[in-house]
Specification:
Length: about 230
């Protein structure tokens, strides 16, 4: 999942980016309203964390322009303005949630999980054969047993799982795993897929497979439901 943080305070933005990246999200940062507006117009995001007091273009205007483009991207307003009217204005403009500064990172992370779960429009528990993936807490179980995955491995699995049975290119995986300024090579993607494949194969007797199509990408095959009939 990809998140845009529109925040002009460098310390706050850095803390948010570090926290969300540790949780496995791809995170981009815009320091001004115009940068945020341009990013939202050119890139699809799963969540926008938006400061109202942005320079060059206010957060409210960024939000209004986003909604005028018919975008349903969930928006969490993050601001020092705690007056009731400020909250009402933000929500009326199309925000989904509102958090005032100062805030606790665990609370923000919980709100991010709730909004991304709501925004995807799916049940947020994705099942494939014996595999169960809960996007709320990014946990993976197979036949009820927890699978120990790194944040990157979980990100790869999420992309492949939501496109199960379809080919996913390495470039697509890079785009969904990395924010601006981050460098993850195609070789690194190969390593993540290799590790994920080994862990899946160690827990499932061949019912889940990641196949490699040389030069094109990867595919998480759907289990053959007729095999056990």
């Amino acid at each position: 999942m990809r998140i845009l943080i529109a925040e002009d305070d460098e310390l706050i933005a850095d803390a948010l980016m570090r926290s969300l990246k540790r949780a496995g999200y791809a995170v981009d940062h815009a320091a001004t309203g115009t940068e945020a507006d341009a990013a939202l117009a050119s890139q699809q995001y799963d969540l926008l964390v938006l400061d109202l007091g942005l320079p060059r273009m206010s957060g409210i205007e960024v939000l209004q322009r986003l909604r005028n483009r018919k975008s349903t991207c969930p928006v969490l307003i993050l601001t020092a303005r705690d007056a009731v009217q400020d909250r009402v204005s933000g929500l009326d403009a199309g925000a989904d949630d509102y958090l005032t500064k100062p805030f606790a990172l665990p609370e923000l992370e919980a709100r991010v999980r709730a909004l991304t779960r709501r925004g995807t429009g799916q049940g947020r528990v994705v099942m494939l054969g014996p595999l169960r993936y809960d996007q709320a807490d990014r946990s993976v179980t197979i036949d009820g047993h927890m699978l120990d995955l790194s944040a990157r491995e979980t990100g790869v699995l999420e992309v492949l799982l939501l496109r199960a049975g379809r080919l996913v290119s390495k470039e697509h995986l890079v785009d969904h795993l990395c924010g601006w300024g981050e460098e993850v090579s195609l070789n690194a993607i190969e390593v993540y897929v290799h590790r994920l494949r080994k862990k899946l194969e160690s827990c499932v007797d061949g019912s889940l497979k990641i196949t490699t199509v040389r030069g094109l990408g990867y595919c998480l095959e759907k289990p053959d439901v007729t095999a056990n009939m």
